[in-house]
Amino acid sequence: MTIDKQQKYQKSLMIVIFTVFSLIAVGGLVRSTGSGMGCPDWPKCFGQFIPPTDISQLPVDYKEQFAVSGRVIADFSPVKTWIEYINRLFGVWTGIAVLILSYFSFAYKSEKPRIFWGSQLALFLVILNGWLGSKVVATHLEPGVITAHMILAILLIFVLQHLKHISIKLERIKTVDSLKKYKSILWVMLILTFIQVILGTQVREQIDHITNLEPNLAKSNWVDRLDYVFYIHRTFSAVILIGVVSLLKKLMQDYKDTLVVQKLCISIALVLIGEIAGGAILAYFSFPAIVQPIHLLLSVFLMSYMYELIVVLSKAQPESL
Length: 321
Description:
Elements: H1 3-32, H2 62-65, H3 78-104, H4 113-138, H5 143-167, H6 179-213, H7 222-225, H8 228-254, H9 259-284, H10 291-314
Helix pairs in contact: 1-3, 1-5, 1-10, 3-4, 4-5, 5-6, 5-10, 6-8, 6-10, 8-9, 9-10
């Protein structure tokens, strides 16, 4: 396999990783602005490939004509329609980018089959999530479908991070006596963070339910309407903070001369602080819409960095004598 083919694959992989994170950010914006039904049909938007910008471009009975699951849709909003449309464009570009990655991975099929099959898995997850995205619209934002949509996006990030570390030659690190324990704790923290994201998704679903039942309710009263899931979500953040900070402190001491571990530990710490700060702003400042996608994106970054650190530690080797 030529160096040129390797470089093409690696560049393509980094583009895909950036694209997927961007798509998650845009998806968070769709959710926080209530734009999920901005385009009530799929794959078109109000029956058009380029959506309308004014209500005059729609038929008089558009609410009934584009009803979803037997329910009449809300009043047309050009802003929400175009936010959802941009989200779909990002989805299409992600599909194209992963398809290109899949093509370049054929160069590894015989020499490094893990890279080839990992790339095909990434393509499968994107196709599956694209189909699931259509079901989000078809089911009128069914909560369970939205959660599954998010879970698949997170799994895709894990696959891409793993591909990065088996396709790009990175710094090898030494093994230490507590390495197995560090990896075990990291896995526990990663699973807890994953659960935390699911809980956060459920909190967002509750807010959607509250605003549907009481559309005139002040944002400052939303927290009072939330059930125990919100309080578990809030408590979990403290558990994760204590566990992660304690672990990072020990890791940075044992790997003080290993740049890749130091960078990942610092990245995890900064993202975790930003994530918890974002959660506090949401809870105490009436859920500002702009903070919601940032909060979601940081949670995905946090899991991505944690998984990347696990992969790096898994490559540790005894020091040569």
